[in-house]
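Entry for the shared binder. Reason: the reviewer on the internal report wants the predicted structure included alongside the sequence.
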Amino acid sequence: MKLRREDMVVVLSGNFRGQGPSKIVSIDRDSRRAIVEGINNALKHVKRGHPKSPQGGRVTIPVAIDVSNLALHCSNCNRGVRVKSQMIDGAKRRVCCRCQKFL
Protein backbone atom coordinates (compact mmCIF):
# COMPACT_ATOMS: atom_id res chain seq x y z
CA MET A 1 0.00 0.00 0.00
CA LYS A 2 1.45 3.35 -1.04
CA LEU A 3 -0.54 5.56 1.34
CA ARG A 4 0.54 6.33 4.90
CA ARG A 5 -0.80 8.20 7.90
CA GLU A 6 -0.43 12.02 7.67
CA ASP A 7 -0.46 11.90 3.81
CA MET A 8 -2.51 14.45 1.90
CA VAL A 9 -5.01 12.69 -0.39
CA VAL A 10 -7.79 13.48 -2.87
CA VAL A 11 -11.00 11.44 -3.13
CA LEU A 12 -11.40 9.87 -6.59
CA SER A 13 -14.88 8.34 -6.44
CA GLY A 14 -18.01 8.14 -4.33
CA ASN A 15 -20.14 10.82 -2.70
CA PHE A 16 -17.07 12.89 -1.78
CA ARG A 17 -15.43 12.78 -5.22
CA GLY A 18 -13.13 15.71 -5.90
CA GLN A 19 -12.81 16.75 -2.27
CA GLY A 20 -9.39 17.30 -0.84
CA PRO A 21 -6.57 17.59 -0.27
CA SER A 22 -7.26 16.15 3.17
CA LYS A 23 -5.02 14.42 5.69
CA ILE A 24 -5.21 10.69 6.51
CA VAL A 25 -5.89 10.32 10.23
CA SER A 26 -5.54 6.53 10.46
CA ILE A 27 -5.24 3.59 8.11
CA ASP A 28 -6.15 -0.10 8.47
CA ARG A 29 -3.89 -2.15 6.24
CA ASP A 30 -5.79 -5.42 6.75
CA SER A 31 -9.16 -4.13 5.52
CA ARG A 32 -7.55 -1.52 3.19
CA ARG A 33 -9.60 1.35 4.61
CA ALA A 34 -8.56 4.82 5.78
CA ILE A 35 -10.11 7.54 7.90
CA VAL A 36 -9.64 10.90 6.19
CA GLU A 37 -10.02 14.23 7.99
CA GLY A 38 -13.32 15.96 7.07
CA ILE A 39 -14.44 13.24 4.63
CA ASN A 40 -17.25 10.68 5.14
CA ASN A 41 -18.49 11.75 8.57
CA ALA A 42 -21.62 10.14 10.04
CA LEU A 43 -24.00 11.33 12.73
CA LYS A 44 -24.41 9.13 15.81
CA HIS A 45 -27.25 9.79 18.22
CA VAL A 46 -26.10 9.44 21.83
CA LYS A 47 -27.91 9.53 25.16
CA ARG A 48 -26.96 11.78 28.06
CA GLY A 49 -23.81 10.75 29.87
CA HIS A 50 -21.82 9.78 26.76
CA PRO A 51 -18.12 10.78 27.14
CA LYS A 52 -18.06 12.75 23.89
CA SER A 53 -21.36 14.53 24.53
CA PRO A 54 -22.42 14.63 28.21
CA GLN A 55 -25.68 16.46 27.40
CA GLY A 56 -26.63 13.97 24.66
CA GLY A 57 -27.57 14.71 21.07
CA ARG A 58 -25.89 14.07 17.74
CA VAL A 59 -22.15 13.45 17.48
CA THR A 60 -20.22 13.35 14.21
CA ILE A 61 -17.91 10.36 13.90
CA PRO A 62 -15.49 9.67 11.04
CA VAL A 63 -16.17 6.61 8.89
CA ALA A 64 -13.46 4.79 6.95
CA ILE A 65 -13.23 5.02 3.16
CA ASP A 66 -11.65 2.43 0.87
CA VAL A 67 -8.06 3.14 -0.12
CA SER A 68 -8.84 2.47 -3.80
CA ASN A 69 -10.97 5.63 -3.79
CA LEU A 70 -8.03 7.82 -2.71
CA ALA A 71 -5.05 9.26 -4.59
CA LEU A 72 -1.99 10.92 -3.11
CA HIS A 73 -1.97 14.71 -3.61
CA CYS A 74 1.09 16.16 -5.34
CA SER A 75 1.69 19.77 -4.28
CA ASN A 76 3.68 20.47 -7.45
CA CYS A 77 0.97 19.16 -9.84
CA ASN A 78 -1.82 20.36 -7.49
CA ARG A 79 -3.91 17.22 -8.12
CA GLY A 80 -4.25 13.57 -7.14
CA VAL A 81 -1.55 11.46 -8.79
CA ARG A 82 -0.27 7.92 -9.09
CA VAL A 83 2.91 7.11 -7.22
CA LYS A 84 5.91 4.93 -7.97
CA SER A 85 8.82 3.92 -5.77
CA GLN A 86 12.47 4.54 -6.62
CA MET A 87 15.69 3.80 -4.80
CA ILE A 88 17.50 7.12 -4.30
CA ASP A 89 20.84 7.03 -2.44
CA GLY A 90 19.96 3.69 -0.86
CA ALA A 91 16.56 4.90 0.39
CA LYS A 92 13.19 3.95 -1.05
CA ARG A 93 11.34 7.16 -1.97
CA ARG A 94 7.87 7.81 -3.37
CA VAL A 95 7.89 9.73 -6.66
CA CYS A 96 5.03 11.39 -8.55
CA CYS A 97 4.49 9.61 -11.88
CA ARG A 98 3.40 12.88 -13.52
CA CYS A 99 6.15 15.37 -12.59
CA GLN A 100 8.87 13.03 -11.16
CA LYS A 101 9.11 15.02 -7.89
CA PHE A 102 9.56 13.42 -4.46
CA LEU A 103 6.49 13.22 -2.25
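Summary line for the report: The chain is about 0% helix and 50% strand.
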